[in-house]
Request: fold
Amino acid sequence: MNYPSRILVAGVGNPIRNDDGVGPYICRCVEQKKMQGITTAIYHQLHTELTEEFLQFDTVVIADAAIEGDAVEFYPLQEKQVSPVASSHHINASLLVSLARQLYQRELNVMICSVRGYDFEMGETFSAAAKKNADEAVSIILDWIAKQLV
Reply:
């Protein structure tokens, strides 16, 4: 069986803001599988310094909570391209892709896993709907990874 050289599953979110913690939760679930060629990392938010780190992987899967949209959306970044955004509090994946091109003349292959959340108040528990969505996202990501292994 051929394994991908390197896939990073990056869980983004704040685990003390209830449903915002679904990204880190997804990351921990994938990590428990201990799959060859799969690395996981948890970040409170994306930042420009991650560009160089992400370039060490063939594909980066970014799992993050969303305040709107479908229960789970999983897609290559290019298919739903959004404009690069940068501010002191928010960097999006499109900006990291753009920086990889501009600074390193390399393509950053990114899959987005957007998981609908409902409660972003202070706390450490998921709403029932967000937990269901997060578990569905884990299944989708693991299925996608399995297809990369053939």
